[in-house]
């Protein structure tokens, strides 16, 4: 697997929203330096991000996004780390690893630094098992297998589209939980990777996330957050609900568990509460919506699925708040922009047909 | 929680199929001696099982089963550890912990002996979360909680009916996997408990299993296995598929993960292959059957659900093999026997009405 990791240097981009903390790159240098970085700057374009020597990178600020996407740049959030999804769109690689700049290298229980990227690659290169639960977790891992009673017809698994990693130290809590439990730290290293079963939704966190851009990239849209929008901190959640419904429909797998990163600092719970509070209401309606969402059989590409989902968002969630009408339109704009920048992508033609 | 464990000495029975190895009870003495044991002897009734001094127990052999159940004793397997379910039926306690006699006390990564029973009790006394996946696993555990994006309306959880524990050392593999990987040992201690999501089936192993008899007992039938039957080693699997469908219907939770036991010896893979080979074919049809099974809304008790399921088994699986007709009838007999021995059990009246 070490050699596979090495090979993927040509097939994987690291996407990072604004880097405010340059220690971040120094700490990750042993693991990330062989890879190409795409940095998407979320605030004032006149500010300059200094990237330490030795890293191969491209950096996009708001002016770049506006220039490249023109009017379609409206689908990319401003002054919010949701803008990172622009990096997914401009990448030309098969795999993406995205990480926040307050995530440092974790240690395993033996004190060894965790190579998070290597574990994401392992997760993405081995199949998923969404149709039946394996009680010994990932059956493809060394020392594990399918247990007694696991149907043999399901043991080939399905391709893995998403690898969701976790966080030691500061857990990814919402503002109310942060406020109630300001001192809670995650110290439990759970040595497992598992497939989230078909039909089950999960809260996807964008802090430490790998995915196969060819398989699911066009659905990895982080929505409208931040400047001018009524909510924040739901960018990754929105993407997670969309990708899970589409992966379930297309027979693709989503894994969660290892690798851990060390999440160094909690964001301000008061600021978070302001960003989140509408989401806290809305998620009570959004989740049943996604749980009930059914995609038609003729949606055979990610783009087609995503455009179909945007219609259902408009129809069903538009009643909840006009924000969802705007979001549904932005979902279509995102697909148009994706296909413009990735014209030879699989199924782009069909999806364009659907979108128009 | 330690005090809760203590209290449950009056509310929990330990059910053990034939004890061939008396080291077993000596090893478990510190943990099991405060509890009442129900031993169900699976072979020749003239053989005597010597239980070491100090244990409070009752022992049933085949003659006892025949005497107590009369003609309905046909639903209890003979010469197979599936007979253990007779112990579930004669217990009068709220909780059951069942364990095999080749399961020893495991050690956690710090070398401390694992009190498996205490962990099962913790699992059973805290709620489950089947409707949405929590990426930090059991949200009710110390040091954990619901993560950002988890709907607040689902944070009360639902009552936990089943706690499925795992095994270090010899993994619970089927015969083909045992044959292919004779040396594989499970050495990975995964420090997690998680709810198996609604709509997802899993392979439930009876080696190390706790459940709430009041909530799910009547569905914990281990089927027809062993003497005179065409298959073996599917007793716990059968029960697992049935209980999961019924728990999903009734809004009850099923957890898997901790506690570990140390599984000391692999059973003979050649013998296992003979017992399993029909099951290996049949499970390819049984699992889609259970995945598609829908119980009517008016089935509001476990008994009513189970009798309804028996009808569906006869109708849909009877075509696969006449064995399933016999099994469907035994499922009804089991419920009749359960209700006879547990006449005041919740919903017994309704279920009897359905069964006749």
UniProtKB/TrEMBL annotation, chains A, B:
Its main location: Golgi. Glycans are attached at residue 148. It catalyses: UDP-beta-L-arabinofuranose = UDP-beta-L-arabinopyranose. GO terms for cellular component: cytosol; Golgi apparatus; plant-type cell wall. GO terms for biological process: cell wall organization; plant-type cell wall organization or biogenesis; UDP-L-arabinose metabolic process. Its EC number is 5.4.99.30. The record marks 148, 155 as: Required for activity. The keyword Isomerase applies. Keywords: Cell wall biogenesis/degradation, Glycoprotein, Golgi apparatus, Isomerase. It is an enzyme of class 5 (isomerase). It is found in: Golgi apparatus. GO terms for molecular function: UDP-arabinopyranose mutase activity. InterPro entries: Nucleotide-diphossugar_trans (IPR029044), RGP (IPR004901), RGP_fam (IPR037595). Probable UDP-L-arabinose mutase involved in the biosynthesis of cell wall non-cellulosic polysaccharides. Belongs to the RGP family. This is UDP-arabinopyranose mutase. It comes from Prunus avium (Cherry). The gene is LOC110759054.
